[in-house]
Design brief:
Blueprint (H helix, E strand, L loop, with lengths): L6 E3 L4 E9 L21 E9 L1 E9 L1 H7 L4 H34 L4 E4 L6 E4 L23 H16 L5 E4 L1 H9 L1 H6 L12 H6 L12 E2 L2 E2 L5 E4 L3 E3 L12 E3 L5 E5 L3 E2 L2 E2 L1 E5 L1 E7 L2 E6 L2 E7 L2 E14 L5 E5 L2
Parallel strand pairs: 1-16, 7-10
Antiparallel strand pairs: 2-3, 4-20, 5-6, 7-13, 8-9, 11-12, 13-21, 14-15, 16-20, 17-18, 19-20
Helix pairs in contact: 1-2
């Protein structure tokens, strides 16, 4: 997710963005001899966005026993308590990072989600302006190995992005379950049969060669505006997190994957016209400097708070995921 939507620093709790787009400008007009040149006025569209960052902020209580051990006169006891505290801090940091990554993939997949505020009962729904036609479902499921047409489906996804972005879709993100379905379908193996690959499973490079931009010649297709093709790639990832319902299970079945089974997230180039197609605004967080003063610090922050006789370890960040180029994203459901 960091590759598709890198973080960038902002120094406020709100972000503003102004987008200026120039409409298609056609070709030049003719002028009759002796006449005044005709006037051309370009059309522009200005879009302004104002978004408040989401606060990912939680604390863990440091119980009395752990605090007593941290202040013990015995070095070994203090050392062991320090390890327990560091472990707790690492868990809170991972929870925070996992939440940001989860937000990224909800945006990439065009899913709206509801932010629940547990202490107030309030909630906010976050949605994204996904383009129409960018959530197709294949006609024949890829689990039907004999009849599925995954290469045609992937090329159709490339062309759908090209219709709106001007570049072929080129990055195909899926988990290992979806990749195995693609790899075992008869269509790509049949296209590769002159090299006797029908007997074997196709590799990623074999699949690339069947897509737009994959044979070298397509990638060199150019218009007056420049190239419209980029070499495709397939990114297989089972990254995710273990939900609390998984308990103490540590196997792959206990993972909640960021990319669900039977779903392909397709994007155009990660950098388009000099800017990322998505990003994560990383804002400032209030940290207590002393008992009556706060300081605002950039990025994810940690602190230990004392509330009367109780100590807490706090982990906080302020983030928001933006799709700068929503037309560069497409979700293909394959089963």
């Amino acid at each position: 997710g960091q590759t598709i939507a890198p973080k960038y620093n902002v120094y406020d709790r709100e972000i503003q963005r102004e987008i200026a787009e120039v409409a298609a400008f056609d070709i030049a007009q003719f002028r009759a001899p002796g006449a005044t040149p005709p006037i051309y006025s370009p059309q522009m569209r200005i879009t302004q966005e104002i978004v408040s960052l989401l606060l990912i902020d939680e604390m863990q209580r440091i119980d009395d026993e752990l605090h007593a051990k941290l202040t013990s006169p015995t070095p070994n006891v203090r050392a062991r308590a320090g390890v327990d505290l560091v472990t707790s801090a690492a868990i809170l940091q991972l929870r925070n990072e996992n939440r940001v990554e989860w937000m990224r993939w909800q945006a990439f997949l065009g899913n709206s989600y509801t932010v629940q505020y547990p202490n107030t009962g309030q909630q906010v729904t976050v949605g994204y302006n996904y383009y129409a036609g960018h959530k197709p479902t294949v006609a024949i499921p890829w689990s039907d190995r004999a009849n599925a047409t995954p290469i045609d489906d992937m090329i159709a996804a490339q062309l759908q992005i090209a219709d709106d972005l001007g570049w072929y879709g080129c990055n195909f993100h899926m988990n290992s379950v979806t990749w195995r379905e693609l790899q075992r379908c008869n269509q790509p193996r049949g296209y590769l049969s002159p090299t006797d690959r029908n007997v074997f499973l196709p590799t990623k490079s074999d699949i690339f060669s069947l897509l737009l931009g994959g044979d070298g010649a397509d990638a060199a297709l150019v218009t007056q505006a420049g190239k419209v093709g980029q070499a495709p790639q397939i990114i297989v990832s089972d990254a995710g997190y273990r939900a609390s319902s998984a308990g103490y299970s540590r196997g792959l079945s206990a993972m909640t994957k960021y990319i669900p089974d039977h779903v392909v997230s397709v994007t155009g180039p990660y950098i388009f016209e000099g800017e990322p197609i998505a990003d994560v605004a990383d804002g400032i967080v209030a940290i207590r400097q002393d008992f009556n003063r706060l300081v605002w610090l950039q990025g994810m922050q940690s602190e230990i708070l004392l509330d009367h006789y109780t100590h807490y370890f706090r982990q906080a960040s302020a983030n928001f995921v933006r799709l700068r180029r929503p037309e560069a994203f497409l979700v293909l459901t394959v089963n």
